[in-house]
Task: structure prediction
Amino acid sequence: MHKAVCLIDGFNLYHGIAKLDEEKCKWCNYRKLAKRFLGPRQNLLRVVYFTAFHYLTVAGKHLGRDTCEQWGSAATIKRDVEND
Result:
């Protein structure tokens, strides 16, 4: 068995999904998604979700930060629940 780790770039994933304008795509099981890319002799050890926050200021107001942070928090909560 070969060991595999999936690294998910949350910033680009979030903005890629946002462009699709499909609400159902915003919530996915990252572990199941990663397993679809594995070969028959590969074992998924871990899925790591990481992100960078984009801070855009328009007229003194930060845009984008809260939305990205909420999505990252939800992904963390979902991950903890799935691993129980």
About this structure: The mean pLDDT is 76. The chain has one domain: 2-82.
